[in-house]
Amino acid sequence: MVDLDPSGQVTQKEPDRAMRQFLSYAFYKLDPAFRRLPQAEREEIKAEFQAAVEDWVNDAEPRQGLILRSYSLVGIRDDVDFMLWRIAFDVNDFQAAQARLNRTRMMGYLHQPATYLAMQKRSQYVNRVQGSGHGLEILPGQGKYLFIYPFIKTRAWYDLTPHARQGMMDEHIYASEPFKGVRINTSYSYGIDDQEFVVSFDSDYPQEFVDLVHRLRYTEASNYTLQDTPMYTCVKKELAEVLDELA
Q1: Secondary structure of residue 76 in the 3-state scheme
Q2: Which of 130, 139, 148, 159 is the most exposed place for a label (fewest CB within 10 A)?
Q3: How many CA atoms lie within 13 A of 67 on its CB side?
Q4: pLDDT tens digits for 117-159?
Q5: So what's the pLDDT on residue 168?
Q6: What's the pLDDT at 136?
Q7: What are all long-range contacts of 130-134, with beta carbons under 8 Å and residues at least 24 apart?
Q8: How far apart are CA 20 and CA 35, in angstroms?
């Protein structure tokens, strides 16, 4: 069903205060000075850092609903080495996670080139599509790879009629339909970060994702994309393996 009143001015829809998941994509880059430390010291520092990352989930109560996934970008990009994907129902939990890391010695050798914050909500365009990955709650990290990018629509997009937008998104969804090996997770950043959305795609097949993005360039909705970079290709790995690739 097309949302004919997205601004809420006609229906005066009440604000939604239901609990939702927040998503944090935190990227880290290692200072090469770390690799010049003695091996025994490096291993000790990595073990301390790993414990700080993982205990954020291990020490939490189940009701907090904390989720953590680790990804390597070593050899893929020159500006980041790894990414921690955290999900929580309270943004304070992200601060607590980073505070744990800030107290480790390894954070003296790491900086964060990028961090994206977003929130999960149901898409107004895909309510009719089952299993679309646009639901109210997600369980991330099902694929071997995660492709992430911040996304901003042009202001002209919001000036279109609701039916025009829905028609373009129907075409967008129809063009994506054959790509069963790619699962999209769209999250929303309006007012809480610089981008409007953070889009991430779980998949075991990079070639399928490349072909999907290529095909979507030919859809009408792509004309209303203002920004969809940088794009990050992340390889899902256990944190111990991620850290071993660093040094």
Answers
A1: coil
A2: 130
A3: 16
A4: 999 987 665 544 444 344 445 667 789 999 999 999 999 999 9
A5: 97
A6: 47
A7: 132/173, 132/184, 133/183, 133/184, 133/185, 133/186, 134/184, 134/186
A8: 40
Q: pTM of the predicted model, to two decimals?
A: 0.92
Sequence-ordered list of residues with C-beta below 8 angstroms from that of 35, at least 6 positions apart, any chain: 42, 246, 247
Judging by beta carbons within 10 Å of its beta carbon (0-12, 13-18, 19+), is residue 4 exposed, middle or buried? exposed
Round to whole Å and give the CA distance between 195 and 183: 21
- Cβ neighbours of 167 (radius 10 Å): 15
Residue with tokens 């980041």: 80
**DSSP three-state, residue 72:** strand
Six token digits for residue 23: 């998503």
- Phi-psi label, residue 115: left if phi above 0, alpha if psi -120 to 50, beta otherwise: beta
**Mean pLDDT within 235-243:** 98
Both structure tokens of 231 = 């794009």
Q: Which residues contact 170 (CB under 8 A, 6 or more apart)?
A: 125
Take residue 15 and report the two structure tokens written for it: 């604000």
* Per-residue pLDDT reduced to its tens digit, 173-220: 999 999 999 999 899 999 999 999 999 999 999 999 999 999 999 999
Which residues are within 8 A (CB) of 133 and not within 5 positions of it... i.e. 6 or more apart?
183, 184, 185, 186
